[in-house]
Amino acid sequence: MGNRWENLVVDARDPARLARWWAEALNYQITYEKPDEVEIRRLPDELPGLVFVPVPEAKELKNRLHIDLRPDDQEAEVERLVDMGARHVDIGQSPGASWVVLADPEGNEFCVLSPKR
């Protein structure tokens, strides 16, 4: 029996808003939208997707799972994401780390890695 990674599900206070933020951040598109679920993918038929679902509570603790982004230009990408509404966060990363930790508009941490050499 085969298995395939379909989606990563993200709890959100405002799924539509957060899905649109991540779609812009990743250059993805909305492929499905209902009040209780919004899915984004790079291309409509390309997996995996990100699915945003509503929850009543705000995020309180550090993520147990997070997304790593690897842009060609880390500094420019961090600036772009912060301009979009991300914010810098300290999760105890070591000083001088080669990655930058940000949080999306609902507080979900993610990393912006340095370019591969």
Describe the structure.
The chain is an alpha/beta fold. The protein has 2 helices and 8 strands. β3 (37-41) and β4 form a beta hairpin. The longest helix is centred in the N-terminal third of the chain and has 12 residues, at 15-26. It is globular and about 40 Å long.
Write the layout of secondary structure elements.
Elements: E1 7-12, H1 15-26, E2 29-34, E3 37-41, E4 49-54, E5 67-69, H2 74-84, E6 87-88, E7 99-103, E8 109-113
Parallel strand pairs: 1-4, 5-8
Antiparallel strand pairs: 2-3, 3-4, 6-7, 7-8
Mean pLDDT comes to: 94
Helix share, percent = 10-25%
Element-by-element helix/strand order: EHEEEEHEEE
Spatial strand order of the main sheet: 1-4-3-2
| Strand residue percentage | 25-35%
Shape: globular
By DSSP, the count of extended strands is: 8
| Largest pleated sheet | 4 strands, mixed
Taking pLDDT < 50 over at least 5 consecutive residues as the criterion, the unreliable ranges are none
Distance between the termini: 38 Å
Q: What would you call the structural class?
A: alpha/beta
Instruction: Specify Rg, calculated over alpha carbons.
Output: 15 Å
